[in-house]
Amino acid sequence: MLAGLVATFVVTSAVDAVMHATGVYPPVDAPPMSDALFAVAFGYRLVFNAGGAWLTARLAPDRGLAHALVLGAVGTVFGVIGTLMFWDAGPH
Q1: What is the distance in angstroms between the CA of the first residue and the CA of the last residue of the chain?
Q2: Is the CB of residue 71 less than 8 Å from the CB of residue 60?
C-alpha cells in the first residue's frame, strides 16, 4: 500500500510542479485557479489515483482489492486533514 501512496504523491506533485512552471497553472502565491483548471487537475489526479490503486492491488500478497480500498481510505483521510489545515488560508 505504501508504494501506491508514494507513487501517487510523487507523480501528482511532479505534474503539479510542471503545470506551474510552464504557466498552465498560475504561481502558487497567486489568486486561486479557475474552475476549468481545477477540472484539469481533478482529471489527471483521478487517473493517477486509479494507477496508485492498481499498483497497490498488484503488489499486494493477497486480497489486492482490500489493499486498494484501504489506500483509498487513507487518501481520503489525508485529503480531509489537508482541507482542514488550509481552510482559512485564503479564498476557496
Answers
A1: 31
A2: no
Q: What nine digits make up the cell of 1?
A: 500500500
Decide if 3 contacts 56 (C-beta within 8 A): yes
Q: Which segments of the chain have a pLDDT < 50?
A: none
Nearest alpha-carbon partner for 11 in 40, 45, 39, 42: 45
CA distance linking residue 12 with residue 87, whole number of Å: 21
Predicted local distance difference test score (pLDDT) of residue 90: 66
Name the DSSP class of 61: S
DSSP code for 60 = -
Cell digits of residue 55: 499498483
Three-state SS at 28? coil
pTM: 0.83
As a whole number of angstroms, the distance between CA 92 and CA 71 comes to: 27
CA distance linking residue 29 with residue 89, whole number of Å: 11
